[in-house]
């Protein structure tokens, strides 16, 4: 497909940015913000029409004032401006973004948005507390983010798409913010989740879904099997899993593709976090899509290796603690 067509809708896709992770650490405190700033810069550099975030923009459910201020500053600097937005919003904003939303943010006459951001919530920044609000609500009410995918009840879920158009490309964007996996598994197994489709010309829409759940099975019901999702989908963006697997994987049972961008900052000592970090540049032209991997360069390098001391020839059960520590120190220095 031709990516520079007037009909091509280009989306920068990222998940699990975890802004504010270890923000008090004197060395790593700015890592999450540097990565997010690079993501927004890549969106500009590659001519994205919009940014799609797959949950866990914030690491803490109640981000600090400093964290929230930094996030809002980045979004203001990179997403506001006088440049025209090529997207036409076709669905009801009250259904898409909540009753308080009179417009998608780039159609708000009081805000100049040049790069729209659409985001669901994850398990770290989900609604809670007084008013059942999320940090995402703060970004939405300030006009910086279009927050969608929130469900009023989790035992009977109805997912309505955000409908967007660019030229002859029609996008139905489905969002499902994080729900506790066991509960969502039960709801979907009982077929109590409805995926609404556009009433007219259903065959011309590219159906894109973003969700934030366990993809890897940690038990019989604490993940969401791919075959639980609707077969009319074309592409699924899977958030929550931190290992980067951007290249689309085809699900033969349901005939859709799955992309898993992974996190933009390492938050755990695991092999999945050591995989090089990427974001996805998604190009959609009518019912066709092309997905490019973009390597993040401002991510702190992270390497991990398993060491079996019993298999090290120079060590024995009689080796002293000092000898073991010296061996491990030399191994770490060799890795870095």
List the SSEs and their pairings.
Elements lengths: L8 E6 L16 H15 L4 E4 L11 H15 L8 E2 L3 H5 L19 E3 L15 H7 L4 E2 L9 E3 L2 E5 L2 E8 L4 H9 L3 E3 L9 E8 L22 E5 L5 E7 L4 E5 L10 H4 L3 E8 L2 E8 L25 H15 L1
Parallel strand pairs: 1-2, 2-4, 4-5, 6-9, 8-10, 10-11, 11-13
Antiparallel strand pairs: 1-14, 3-7, 7-8, 12-13, 14-15
Helix pairs in contact: 1-2
Number of strands: 15
User: What distance separates the N and C termini?
Assistant: 41 Å
By DSSP (H or I, 4+ residues per run), the number of helices equals: 7
Q: How is the largest sheet built, in terms of strand order?
A: 3-7-8-10-11-13-12
The secondary-structure element order is: EHEHEHEHEEEEHEEEEEHEEH
Radius of gyration: 21 Å
Q: Any low-confidence stretches, pLDDT <50, length ≥5?
A: none
Oligomer: single chain
The main β sheet shows up as: 7 strands, mixed
How much β-strand is present in the residues?
A: 15-25%
What would the average pLDDT be, to the nearest integer? 93
Choose one word for the global shape. Answer: globular
Measured as a percent range, the helix fraction is 10-25%
Structural class: alpha/beta
């Amino acid at each position: 497909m031709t990516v520079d067509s007037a009909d091509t809708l280009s989306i920068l896709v990222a998940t699990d940015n975890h802004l504010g992770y270890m923000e008090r650490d004197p060395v790593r405190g700015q890592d999450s913000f540097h990565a997010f700033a690079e993501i927004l810069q890549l969106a500009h550099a590659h001519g994205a029409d919009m940014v799609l975030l797959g949950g866990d923009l914030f690491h803490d459910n109640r981000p600090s004032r400093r964290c929230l201020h930094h996030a809002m500053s980045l979004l203001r600097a990179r997403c506001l401006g006088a440049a025209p937005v090529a997207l036409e919003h076709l669905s009801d904003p009250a259904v898409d973004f909540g009753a308080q939303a009179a417009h998608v943010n780039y159609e708000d006459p009081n805000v100049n948005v040049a790069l729209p951001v659409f985001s669901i919530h994850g398990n770290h920044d989900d609604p809670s507390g007084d008013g059942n609000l999320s940090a995402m609500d703060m970004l939405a009410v300030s006009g910086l983010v279009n927050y969608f995918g929130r469900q009023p009840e989790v035992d009977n879920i109805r997912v309505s798409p955000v409908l967007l158009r660019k030229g002859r490309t029609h996008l139905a964007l489905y969002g499902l913010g994080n729900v506790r996996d066991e509960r969502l598994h039960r709801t979907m197994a009982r077929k109590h989740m409805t995926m609404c489709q556009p009433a007219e010309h259903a065959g011309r829409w590219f159906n894109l879904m973003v969700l934030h759940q366990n993809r890897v099975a940690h038990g019989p019901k604490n993940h969401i099997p791919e075959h639980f999702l609707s077969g009319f989908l074309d592409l699924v963006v899977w958030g929550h899993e931190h290992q980067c697997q951007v290249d689309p994987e085809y699900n033969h049972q349901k005939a859709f593709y799955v992309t898993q961008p992974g996190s933009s900052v390492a938050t755990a000592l695991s092999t999945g976090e050591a995989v090089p970090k990427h974001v996805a540049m998604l190009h959609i032209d009518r019912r066709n899509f092309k997905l490019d991997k973009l390597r993040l360069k401002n991510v702190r390098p992270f390497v991990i290796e398993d060491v079996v001391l019993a298999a090290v020839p120079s060590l024995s059960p009689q080796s002293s603690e000092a000898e073991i520590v010296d061996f491990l120190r030399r191994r770490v220095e060799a890795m870095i």
